[in-house]
Amino acid sequence: MSRAEAKPAALYHRTVVWLLFAILLLPLAGTLLYSLSTSWSASILPDGLTFKWYVALWGDARFLNAFGQSLLVCFGALALSVVLILPLLFVVHYHFPKLDGLMNVLILLPFAVPPVVSSVGLLQLYGSGPLAMTGTPWILVGCYFTIALPFMYRAITNNLQAINLPDLMDAAHLLGASTWKAAFLVVLPNLRKGLMVSLFLSFSFLFGEFVFANMLVGTRYETLQVYLNNMKNSSGHFNSALVISYFFFVLIFTWAANRLNKDKS
Amino acid sequence: MSNHPGSTAKSVRVKAKWLALLWLVPFAVFFVVFQVAPLVWVTINSLNSPEGWGLANFSKVFSSRFYMQAIKHSLEIAFWSSLIGMAVALLGSYSLRQVDSRLRDFVMAFSNMTSNFSGVPLAFAFIILLGFNGALTLLLIKIGLIESFNLYSKNGLIVLYTYFQIPLGVLLLYPAFDALREDWRESAALLGAGTWAFWRYIGLPVLTPALLGTFVILLANALGAYATVYYLTTGNFNVLPIRIAGLVSGDISLDPNLASALSMILVGLMAVITVAHQLLLKRSYHVAR
């Protein structure tokens, strides 16, 4: 390819990338502008700019409550996931590597079964009886564990393969460490970064979960997404401030994950 | 337990290995309670109806124009949003590979972040942008590109779904270009192939498996989507997930068994798509492994 041809090609690729960026940015930029405008209806640009919607939002008790409850449910689900998935990964990869094949099939289930389908069964099974928990945050913690599972399992598996688990354990054993000690003091610190990255990313999509929260719990333990849905008839500017505040949090967590990922390499 | 060579130490280790399986019990309990049991309940009860066990729920669905319309809408929106989303992602990820790394890293990171901008917040943002009085709608009408735009229609939903398909498409397609070596392009050019011929005979065939795989994931993503369309149309637009949710959590006409049958149809559609993908993959001549 000669130089004369290369220039228009480079210009074309830059244009496509900027267009892609513009398409992805547009809904966010629109919402941001709406959240900062005094009033904006039936015109292409807003009438004036203000911060009052953010002040109103962050002074609203119901919002703060929903925000806190969202955080609690997400952190609870992530803590549960770590407690359940880390031992699983260790046992599978150290003692029974053949189970990995089975696990790879099992973790497809949360993908193959949409939340709306699971909810049908969950509502009937746990609406009453010994495991009655619809309408409580506990059912969300359990369901969010299943959402985070495939992602965390794959991410940490890649990490375990990278540190060469059997060799690491053999070395630790040779130096006199028990399996327990080796798992906690040798393997776990090596997984710390990969685990943090997968936790940050899991948080950013669990924080936006709506289907389970709305169908199984609703207003009885209002999360941020359910609150946004219930505020549908209030001011659009107020809701914009809510959406931007929500996305800002997601942004922080994905950014942190990105940074950690870069440090690793 | 220290690991001295010897038969006792070995038997202790074997015992420890089986004891380790106990660690899987809590995981298995939670997985069964929150993932397997609901699916089993849905599967069994899809065959249960007031008339007794059998296929009554399914024949009710397939003879109802209302439910058939929901299935048709779901498939149409999923198909078109996946196709357009994938086309945009394909053009985008190819160009992403050709620009300097600073711009690339920035746009890739941004694309990954927007993949979390979905569901209710996304629907809300689209109302502001493309609703009846949305800024973009007004702008496009003013410059005469469109006469009107109805976000709350099938076409409106296709636009909205396409938006959330793009970041996922980029995420899946960007690594696929690893298979397409840059020197092939130069070789093809030396042999007299133009841009069109290169893509027709080399580029697209090599990318076919990745494109098919991406398409399947995007289809599944769109078929199961619920939050966006629920918020946008307050549960009034007729697609499968809305109908399923309506039958278990609506105020009127609760029928969990019928909801189960619809759920099985939704999961079945995804299974058919996945199997078709596997078959196509086997038939496409360029399979690396």
Automatic annotation (TrEMBL), chain A:
Cell location? Cell inner membrane; Cell membrane
Q: Which PROSITE patterns match?
A: ABC_TM1 (PS50928)
The principal location of this protein is membrane
Q: Name one Pfam family in it.
A: BPD_transp_1
Which key words are in the record? Cell inner membrane, Cell membrane, Membrane, Transmembrane, Transmembrane helix, Transport
The entry's protein name is Spermidine/putrescine transport system permease protein
The similarity annotation says: Belongs to the binding-protein-dependent transport system permease family.
How would you describe this protein's topology in the membrane? Answer: Multi-pass membrane protein
What InterPro entries does the entry give? MetI-like (IPR000515), MetI-like_sf (IPR035906)
Enumerate the transmembrane spans: 12-34, 71-96, 102-126, 138-156, 195-217, 237-257
Asked if the keyword Transport belongs to this entry, the reply reads yes
Where is the ABC transmembrane type-1 domain positioned along the sequence? 67-257
Automatic annotation (TrEMBL), chain B:
Subcellular localization(s) per the UniProt record: Cell membrane
Instruction: Give me the segments passing through the membrane.
Output: 21-44, 77-96, 117-146, 158-177, 198-223, 258-281
- Per the record's keyword annotation, is Cell membrane included, yes or no? yes
- In terms of superkingdom, the source organism counts as Bacteria
What keywords would UniProt list here? Cell membrane, Membrane, Transmembrane, Transmembrane helix, Transport
Tell me the PANTHER family matching this sequence.
INNER MEMBRANE ABC TRANSPORTER PERMEASE PROTEIN YDCU-RELATED (PTHR42929:SF1), INNER MEMBRANE ABC TRANSPORTER PERMEASE PROTEIN YDCU-RELATED-RELATED (PTHR42929)
Could you tell me what this protein is called? Spermidine/putrescine transport system permease protein
Q: Which species is the source of this protein?
A: Pseudomonas cuatrocienegasensis
The top of its lineage is: Bacteria, Pseudomonadati, Pseudomonadota, Gammaproteobacteria, Pseudomonadales
